[in-house]
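Appendix B, record 7
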Amino acid sequence: MTDRKAAIGLSPIPVFLFPQCAISAYDDFYVPDFLLIPMPKFANTRAWEQAELLMQPTFIRVIDNIGKQLETSHWKGTYQEVQMWADGISEATKTQVLELRQQLETAAPEELEELQEALVRLPSPHPGYLLCLQYQSRQITVDVWQLCYQICFRNYSPVLNAMDTNLIVEIDTTLIDETGDVDWQKLDIKTKQLIGQIFTSLSGANSTPEP
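Structure tokens (predicted):
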């Protein structure tokens, strides 16, 4: 029997559609807006559990390191939370879910249970987090979860993952110590390196004349 978790990917991780194109210097961090990034797929339940162990502490450290870099950068950053849907959800279903949610806000007490039951039977969007960077007239949007994937997985590429929907990701097990817990020092180092690379690239873009 197929392992359901391994087949569908890590459930709290949503599907992302990047809203802007990346310039070539940043291909490791951004992807063109026509690429739909599917949920990561895992070889087995063990890998799924390891990803679940790493993802939250990685997210926290990504946000923390971005904040530290922005303190000394010419680039200004803001975060945007967006609702992201799994692949294959029809527009009609999305509209139905959003309408039911709106109805919940003003529903009479006797209507609440029926509306809630209807929502339970329908798919729900997951929160996506975008880092919106701006310097003068330049604007770049970074998907925060994709940064987390690049830290938690070995040799992860958003572009390759979008092109091959059957790609199995590999957990970076060096981030897990011999007791099965997170190796906090190695996680801190890898996160700092990745975020540092991004802002080093951005610093180079600062010196590029605008057209």
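Remarks on this record: Confidence is low (pLDDT under 50) at residues 1-36. Residues 4-74+141-203 form one domain.
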